[in-house]
Please model this.
Amino acid sequence: MKWSPSGDIFALSEKETSSISKQTWTTYMITSYTETRQGVNPQQMYTKWKGKMMKVQQTNQAVSHEVEVFEFKKTARHESNDAKTTVVWDDFGKAFVIHGEKATVGPFDKEKRSIRFFTMYGEPLLTIDRLPEMNHFSFRPRPNNLLNKNQTVTLKKTYRKTYKKTFKEEEKSEKATANETMRTSKKKIRDEFLNDFYIPNRKAYDDNIDKFIAIWPIKDDDLTPEPVAVNHIFHYGEVT
Model:
């Protein structure tokens, strides 16, 4: 098993029987999700009798809680014709290599082996077959940090004072851009509603107002005024 430096992906070597010459490498990704589960919380009631605490009742209260569930998701499976293979990950876990290794012990190595490059998810990128004396492979080393120890300590002490104003300005600019995008989106929806729906239909209604009045089932002559009902409410004393 070879773990990716990212920590969430690993490659596993599988071989069904010792007689099979092909070696299979399968890549897995560890995924997680939150799941709500139901449980029971026992509630116990006690009373004091003759100076001693005695349990008089126990009830089970249904409760729900969230748990994080992990799954192993198979992303790819690759077979190799080499008798012995190994996996090498790059320093950042973005790609890996499967290449053949020397299977026999001895000073002479006439076997030709292959090397194959894959993405972190097991997608093939490049294959080179029949390489003589292929035994080791390593990615070009890359620095994990561009700062030395003293520079790192200094940065931890001064980064708030040095970069706070810059970060605030960038945050303000990003917020203004997001607000402008939202405002433009709302204006577009409003303009489409007015120009494509409301104004054309309103104009069509105004142009044919007499036609709509004619087909309206309730006429003005059918309307009779009703007397206004007045209710008097009497209250004595202070009104609060």
In short: The chain has a mean pLDDT of 80. The longest strand covers residues 52-80. The radius of gyration is 39 Å. The chain is about 30% helix and 40% strand.
